[in-house]
Specification:
- With 169 residues, the chain is an alpha/beta fold.
- The chain folds into two domains: 130 residues, 3-Layer(aba) Sandwich (Rossmann fold), CATH 3.40.50; 31 residues, no CATH class.
- Helices cover 55% and strands 15% of the residues.
- The protein has seven helices and five strands.
Length: 169
């Protein structure tokens, strides 16, 4: 299930592309924000709700690979879809290795982009749920007494609770 607060962040300096993508995302029921360059997005990313980035591989001053690197350093993970008018398998592989959720060559159909955005937002929501679950588990583990902790370690090692309790005594 996607987070209803998730947004699509479009990073592209081309005004017609901005209008086209905004219309596409609104028609599909997604909230979106436009950033004319990667620097503007990076300045705000730490304050933004969860979401997905759609960015051109080539932007003035910073390419998509550098955007992904700086994004990890400043704001953590946002799934990103990089688009480019040129590039084949090597560009796609390089994008994925850099951390992109997807690489789409222009021109692309609306349904291709929307499918990629949905997939990225679902992955983002799944990661957020997993992170919350890990935090809850960590909080619960912190409340264990030393003896309970030892019993748990025994169980995790494949022993029964009774054997783990006996060994922990």
């Amino acid at each position: 299930m996607m987070n209803p607060d998730s947004e699509v962040y479009v990073i592209d300096g081309d005004a017609p592309t901005q209008r086209s993508l905004t219309s596409l995302f609104e028609a599909a029921g997604f909230a979106s924000r436009i950033y004319c360059d990667p620097f503007a997005f990076l300045d705000e990313c730490h304050r933004l709700p969860p979401g997905c980035i759609v960015a051109s591989l080539r932007s003035p001053g910073m390419d998509g690979f550098e955007l992904l690197q700086r994004l990890q350093e400043r704001c953590g993970a946002y799934p990103a879809i990089l688009t480019a008018s040129e590039g084949g398998v090597s560009r796609a592989v390089a994008s994925m290795k850099a951390g992109a959720a997807d690489f789409i060559r222009r021109p692309y159909g609306d349904e291709v982009l929307l499918r990629a955005v949905c997939t990225a937002l679902k992955a983002e929501a799944k990661a957020a749920t997993l992170t919350a679950s890990i935090r809850q588990s960590s909080d619960a583990l912190a409340t264990l007494t030393p003896r309970e902790h030892d019993v748990l370690l025994g169980i995790l090692a494949g022993r029964t609770g009774r054997v783990g309790a006996t060994e922990a005594a």
